Amino acid sequence: RQHESPRRVKRAWVIPPISVSENHKRIPHLLVQIKSDKQQPGGVIYSIKGPGVDEEPLGIFSIDKFSGKVFLNAMLDREENDRFRLKAFALDLGGMTLEDPTDLEIIVVDQNDNRPLFRQDVFTGHVVEGAEPGTCVMTADATDADDPDTDNAALRYSILEQGAAGMFSINATTGEICTAQPGLDRETMGVYNLTVQAADMSGDGLTTTATAVIYLEDINDNPPEFTKEEFSMEVEEQAAGVDVGKVFAHDKDLAGSPNWLAKFTILEGDPEGAFAIRTDPYTNDGVLSVTKPLDHEVRDRFKLTVSVQNEQPLEPTAPASPRALATVRVRVRDVNEAPIFRDNPRRVSVLEGAPPGTPVTTYTASDPDTRQLQTLSYALLYDPADWLQLDPHTGTVRTKRELLHPSAFLQGGWYIALLLARDDAKPPLSATGTLSIEILEVNDHPPLLLPPAGVVCGRPGRGGSLLLGATDDDRPPHGAPFHYQLSPQQPQLARNWSITRFNVTHAVLAVLVELPEGPYSLPLLLRDSGTPPQERQQLLNVSVCHCGRDGTCEDGVLAAAAAGAGITLGALMIILGSFLLLLVLAGLGAARVRGRRRALRKGLLQRSRDDMRDNILNYDEQGGGEEDQDAYDINQLRHPELFPPRVKPPVRRDAPLSSATPLAPRKLPNSPSDIEDFINEGLEAADSDPSVPPYDTALIYDYEGSGSVASPLSSIVSSLTDEDQDYDYLSEWGPRFRRLADLYG
């Protein structure tokens, strides 16, 4: 079997790459003519397809379909398209393919039509001053859009201008800028502006420029210096914490940086540390201030030596220089100063009870202004008790009245006064001094027995003791301890009584032998511990009582009375009797009031089962009122047989002729209906009684005032019947008239 050989492609149909220069201006321009070897009787139809033909960008290339000539119809830009790959076709008149499609490659040849471009217009870099040559700062690089494989994009860099001769250099190939020479000094020139150029065609083609700005960074290579060698200033005396003045310094380094900030030091002339100096952070000047008050009279001038240096140390490369020094002269100006009490407060002591005019002390002040002639005067600024008097010229203090103790103006035994010292300057100045006077205690009060009475059992050893106490108006050490003893003038007391010390203020009185019950008066001698000691003889009233089993008094009333006051037994009995009499009288009064209230409840508050005649009360007493419930004995009306008959009264001569004297004895009524007749007969008998005032005698009644809030009683009987009377108001008079309201309402 025979193998088929590979199909052979004719050489005329294989098209080599076609080169055309960009920016070709002769258009249309014949690029190539393609031709197929398979000629048909009717001819061959040629066509091309691809970018630049039927794809973007459209219309750049075209072909003559009968001759196969390919034309360029537009200018080319290699930076946009550096080559085009097309397909060529050969067809017969019927549209049948005569040849397989072949490749048609059109290469755009570059031209130097693009200048180099720097990546930025201004390049910025920093380098420290004094940097060594060869120190690189930055790179100023550029780009070229032309073919990098040709000289059209081969760039070369150079420095056109840098303002100083040869301080910086640039790498021609990379564009890196470095220092070229030593001696960069920020204080001389702090900023360098370089003009940098980039050129293609290895430096012979198109060019472009940019700016490179190089800043020199500061180092501490310059020490601060004073602007002058001597400064003068002045300050008032006694001024502290104030600024005196400034010393001026200058530093060439960058202002505001640590290399510029100065530090000042006072080296000489201030042994007491009265001055201080600090740095003004804004101006870098030294500010001198006073830390302690200055005294013109002691020292009026100062000569200070001040140095200045940087906060940061100098760089080793900086030139060596001595420390900057300056002299500061300060003059202390004299001013008026207030007087001074050197001894403040002044403490003195005076005996209590000192008579008026007693010298206390001489309290004076001194004037610091020794170089000025001034006179001081004194006055009392505070004397709450008005106890003192002061000499305004000498400052001598004396008592104005007797100093008493205790007093509300004393504080712990001290009296506080304030003195004012004033000079005669204009304006005057003053000072205040405190005078503390201790009122020394004088032993002028003997101790006082308290309480002066007590109760003890009359049996030794079992309650037969009494605790004694005393008080003393004097303060220590003129008070306790107190000394108790029986009166030496009556030595016989020691046979029955004894006194022993209990503590510094109390003692114990004890019974030595069994004593009968009753009151005893014991003279005691009490003495304090003052200097000289004060003593007083006092009576102690002791009531000896009957002792119980537990050693206490059984007669509590006697014990309590005797313990409360030192009185005799007879006086005590009188007091007890009077007290019992008062209790009896109070009981009788309470019983009487209770009886009246009980009668009132029976008369007004009982219900209808009670006889209304029980409420006949005696109202002829002015002032008794409703509380007076002493009623007539109604039993005489109910049971007349129980009472003896009345004798016939004598006939009155002044009785009216029409009045008839009833017979005696009268017959008492047997039923309630005869009450009216009985009362009339009693009235007639009273009129005939010769023991009463005459019938026509004018009677005197007490004046009770004009007007009354109550209605007149005559209104009750103003009508013969009760039908036209309204008794509803009785219910508003309270519980006492509730019964009447029920009857008449």
Automatic annotation (TrEMBL):
GO CC annotation: what is one?
cell surface
Output the GO biological process annotations, alphabetical, semicolon-separated. Answer: adherens junction organization; calcium-dependent cell-cell adhesion via plasma membrane cell adhesion molecules; cell migration; cell morphogenesis; cell-cell adhesion mediated by cadherin; cell-cell junction assembly; homophilic cell adhesion via plasma membrane adhesion molecules
Keywords attached to this Swiss-Prot or TrEMBL record, sorted alphabetically, are:
Calcium, Cell adhesion, Cell membrane, Cleavage on pair of basic residues, Glycoprotein, Membrane, Metal-binding, Repeat, Signal, Transmembrane, Transmembrane helix
Give the matching SUPFAM superfamilies.
Answer: Cadherin-like
Q: Which is one Pfam family of this protein?
A: CADH_Y-type_LIR
| Predominant location category | membrane
This protein is called what?
Answer: Cadherin-15
Q: Where does the Cadherin domain start and stop, copy by copy?
A: 12-118, 119-226, 236-341, 342-449, 468-558
As for what it does, the entry says: Cadherins are calcium-dependent cell adhesion proteins. They preferentially interact with themselves in a homophilic manner in connecting cells; cadherins may thus contribute to the sorting of heterogeneous cell types. M-cadherin is part of the myogenic program and may provide a trigger for terminal muscle differentiation.
Molecular function GO terms recorded:
beta-catenin binding; cadherin binding; calcium ion binding
What is the membrane topology listed in the Swiss-Prot or TrEMBL record?
Single-pass type I membrane protein
InterPro entries linked to this entry: Cadherin, Cadherin-like_dom, Cadherin-like_sf, Cadherin_CS, Cadherin_Y-type_LIR, Catenin-bd_sf
Subcellular location per the Swiss-Prot or TrEMBL entry: Cell membrane
Membrane-spanning residues = 558-591
- Cited SMART domains: CA
Map out region (Disordered) in residue numbers.
Answer: 643-676
Name the species this protein comes from: Rissa tridactyla (Black-legged kittiwake)
